Amino acid sequence: MKKNNLGKLIHLKKLCTDKNHFQMLAVDQRPPIFNLITDSTGQSYTYSQVVECKRLITEHLSKLATAILMDPHYSLSNILEFNQSKGLVITLEEHSFIETQKGRYSRNIDNWSVEKIKKAGGDAVKVLAWYRPDADKESIEHQQEYVKEIGLECEKYNIPFLLELLVYPFKDDENHTTEYQEQKQKKTQHVIDSVKEFAKDEYKVDIFKLESPVDSSMLEGDITKETEKAFSDLAEATNDKPWVVLSSGMDKDSFYKCLELAYTNGASGYLAGRTIWLDAFKNYPNIEKVEEGLKNASVSYVKKLNELTARNAQSLDTFFNNGFKIDNPEKFTKDFGGFE
Known about the structure:
alpha/beta; TIM Barrel; 10 strands; two-stranded antiparallel sheet; eight-stranded parallel β-sheet
């Protein structure tokens, strides 16, 4: 292996179970939490309310996770003391984006960087990049360059790059929305071609966080041959890079089926949020009932996901064994240099 990848491997190992699977909890959501507060109270959300929601999720569910995904504005800056997982993934991208008729443009959170994530103790940098291979040329080029620059920074600071890809509706699409939710009637090929692009070595992605290649409605009832093939094609598109599955707020049964299909095709775990904990907030702002939902239904569901992951997910044993293997240890130590 390349000597300057050791740091990345050590960080990735911290995000895994003893069997080298990923069971990661997301509390970095911003608009989804803003919306649940506003919808429940009929008033604009406050900073303290957002922090409170993230704290409740972290306090009750992080003990079942191998790692937690936090944002710097609300969670990282307030609730680290409540985290009971061993790994820490930190968000880099701003939740708001520029949208044109046929494109979206991502950017970093102001005054935030890969270097600062590493200095803050992060074990991985997470970036969500909105992407469609049929978007306008300027948007495609911007998103590609944005991801490429982050990949270079992650290599410079020896921290894993976790890339989340989401397809999205154009402004003139029937189901257009700027909400953080699964695109209705998305095209499977758009998802697969997006992954193929960023699986190229030039982007330096270490692990993918991927959505279902089919609409979640296709995961209800019997699974078709077309759906099975979509997951197989998705796995092939990753170019053998480790990948986990995101939940995009789909219902619990659909996400479980999504994981079953993903694990059959080589996924190594999940990084999920709303599907796990959103139901518990239906009684917000009644905190007592929210906690009851988190302690019971949410905990039960996470345990079910973890059991499935332990049984069926692709272990990264070989990945780590090969990565940590040093052919000539004495020479490696003698010649070991800095990270240019």
